[in-house]
Amino acid sequence: MKFQLVTLLGVKVDQDVYEVILPTADGEIAVFPGHEPLVSIATPGAIAVRHDKHDDDSKLEFFAISGGVIEVTYDTIKVLVDEADSENDIVETEAKAALDRALKMKDEAKNQIELEKASALVDRHGVRLKVAGLRRRRRH
Amino acid sequence: MPSTRALKTRIRSVKSTKQITKAMQLVAASKMRKAQEAEEASAPYTRMANEILTHLASQGVTDDHPLYEKRAQVKSRLLIVIATDKGLAGAYDANGLKLYAKQLLSDDKEGVANQTLYIGRRANRFASRLKGTEVAAAYQDLPDDPAGGQLRAIVQMAIEKFESGAVDAVDVVFTEYHSTVRQEARMQRILPAGYEVVDVGENVREALFEPSKEEVLEAVTYRLIEAQVYHALLTARASEYIMRMMAMKNATDNATDLVDDLTLAMNKARQAAITQELAEISGGVEALND
Predict the structure, then answer these.
(1) ipTM exceeding 0.90, yes/no
(2) Of A80, B44, B256, B266, which has the fewest beta carbons less than 10 angstroms from its beta carbon?
(3) pTM score > 0.90 for this model?
(4) According to the model, what pLDDT value does residue A140 have?
């Protein structure tokens, strides 16, 4: 099954995988080859990818995404997202610092616009931190 | 005839100008390639969004959506004008801003109120001399890769103004890149939302929509508008750089010609001075011999 992560900046990921776990508005869904065609909305969160049928959970690869749209067909999964980061690109300490900064911004927001901006940042960095944490846990 | 020394100084200064224009030409060429590549990279995103929207529209889902509402009378509209920050790009800004001015005039005639969102310092400068249009926002020094916060802020503002009824339409004025020799200022309506009709794959036609078609429509529409503005920004960037490259190439060629002419003039002047000196010496010798 083909898995594609499509952003405005280009196709970030294009690989053959066995299973993809996606965060959607109705909760997490796991998609295997042969899934019925589906179009759904992705919420900010972590996408987990299992490359081979025999891989256990410790081998899952994670991607942090902001919201997007999912298109599942029998043999492909396309995810249209605003932003996507591979776990390998995220440094946990940096993500933590960024989240702290965003939280501080949210506390100090003077108006609705600033508050919204800060909340979006909190969401984004929260997800990134979560993905970084998932990777660390898996390594130990 | 100017002195040899004056000509020498001129030649030196033209040569250093030439170095600068040559460097700007090369920089513009490489930046143009990058803008083009970025634009091509966004194609799969746009295509996927268009496919889903084409399908949803064929099912009538777009009919009632507020972002697709075509209002009977456009009483006010928001123009998004894209220009350069730096100039020195040939007719780029002149063409874009001329189209914009034409829009303002036609709005004036038809009694349509308008607001403008300016992108680029040149657009700001142009706007400061205008009356009658309200400035909605002004951006400058957008990064070469504009997919970040600013893009979202621009799109957000356009959508909010449209949804609240402050404006009845949103248009983007930009320069479309066709080829190295053809760039054209044009206008694209982004709200009420439109999409490009594309072939819908069987997979999408049979697909389940979760949580609902309306919600998927909302999410995809928002992203397509973002992609449209992104496309406008990038194609405008590519046009800007190709026009700057051509302008700088012409400047470099002119400088080369000028250096040739000046060198010729300098050689002539030097030769004239030598001839004159010789004439004076031989004149002196003749005088002594007499």
Answers:
(1) no
(2) B256
(3) no
(4) 53
